[in-house]
Write a structure and sequence with these properties.
The structure is a single chain. The protein is an alpha+beta fold. It has a domain at 60-134. It has helices spanning 3-7, 11-56, 82-92, 104-113, and strands at residues 61-63, 67-79, 122-134. It has a 3-stranded antiparallel sheet. The longest helix has 46 residues, at 11-56.
């Protein structure tokens, strides 16, 4: 339907036309997602195998003709004891530690300046991630 043809329709008809296209896209996207699922799972398997091979060979990265794989580490900060953490923040008058959770950069800075010690009630989690890039 052209724009000029659409202008001849009622708003109700246009809404129904629009909603029918949304439903068609939803059906198509679900089919594509289901079709791609084995490939997505295979990619996860490949990443896990690459990670293990890099770890076993004590390498942080490796290259091939088609790309490069490297391990990076992501850290997350979580508060497991709000009372202890809040008391620490108040005692130190370091309100920069507070966001909706603990401010990751501030917690990491504190850890780095205190020989690896974390503020009370805070945990840092680390997760290695395999990054794959084109050559």
């Amino acid at each position: 339907m052209t724009y000029e043809e659409a202008l001849q329709c009622t708003i109700g008809d246009l809404i129904e036309w629009y909603r029918s296209m949304e439903r068609a896209i939803d059906v198509y996207m679900l089919a594509v997602k289901q079709e791609l699922q084995p490939t997505v799972e295979n990619m996860a398997t490949a990443k896990a195998a690459i990670m293990q091979k890099l770890i076993d060979s004590k390498q942080e990265s490796a290259s091939s003709q088609t790309g490069r794989a490297s391990i990076s580490t992501a850290e997350t900060v979580s508060v497991h004891d709000w009372e202890a953490f809040h008391a620490f923040v108040e005692e130190m008058q370091e309100h920069d530690f507070l966001v909706k959770g603990a401010a990751p950069a501030k917690v990491k800075e504190y850890r780095d300046m205190n020989n690896g010690k974390l503020p009370p009630g805070v945990t840092i989690s680390r997760m290695n991630i395999v990054n794959i890039r084109k050559a």
